[in-house]
Amino acid sequence: MGKTISFVKVELERDAAMLHEWQQQPYVIPFWKLDIPFEAYVKHLEKFLADTHQTLYLGLIDGVPMSYWEAYWVKGDVVEDTYDYHPHDQGIHLLIGEEAYLGKGYALPMLRAMVAFQFLSKKTEKVIAEPDITNDKMIHVFETCGFEKVKPIQLPDKTGMLMFCHRETFERRWSDVIESAAGESV
After folding, report:
1. Cβ 160 vs Cβ 152: under 8 Å
2. Each residue of 24-73: pLDDT tens digit?
3. Domain ranges (residues) in the chain
4. pTM of the entire structure?
5. How many angstroms separate the CA atoms of 23 and 14, rounded?
6. What is the pLDDT of residues 125-154, one digit of tens each?
7. What is the pLDDT of residue 174?
8. Which terminus of the chain has a lower count of CB atoms within 10 Å, N or C?
9. Which residues lie below 8 Å from residue 65, measured CB to CB, with a gap of 6+?
10. Does domain 5-182 have CATH number 3.40.50.2300?
């Protein structure tokens, strides 16, 4: 890719306005459904930042914020009731917020880097995703990364496609990414 990928934890004061703007984008609204007034979004973000089962990140390319990530533990999430989960399963949500980065091939290397980071937890054998069942582009990116479709699941805000990425599959496919993630801090 020839660019530097990094992640920083979301900070309410620094990031709320930018994240709210991203949630207003026509390509984001159908899948995130957070096209709400700024004050309501700040309350939503405060609640998510206080939720100890997940960590929120900005994804950066060459130091420029361009994506939003929710890395979470399945235990404690609404998705835990949709399959027989292992206590160390993790999940991921993401969106490309800056339109200039859409369609440029950044989603896959960013996803690989985040999943490699999640697999640094030695007890995690599986990372899951549940993109909206109509989001063909993201389902394709997840599949290219090593996720496999499991089944459609009903969640409070959508019908998602439950997808699993097993450690063994990921390590076999992306061993170079894992080595680089182990040497960097996210």
Report:
1. yes
2. 999 999 999 999 999 999 999 999 999 999 999 999 999 999 999 999 99
3. 5-182
4. 0.90
5. 16
6. 999 999 999 999 999 999 999 999 999 999
7. 81
8. N
9. 15, 18, 58, 59, 97, 98
10. no
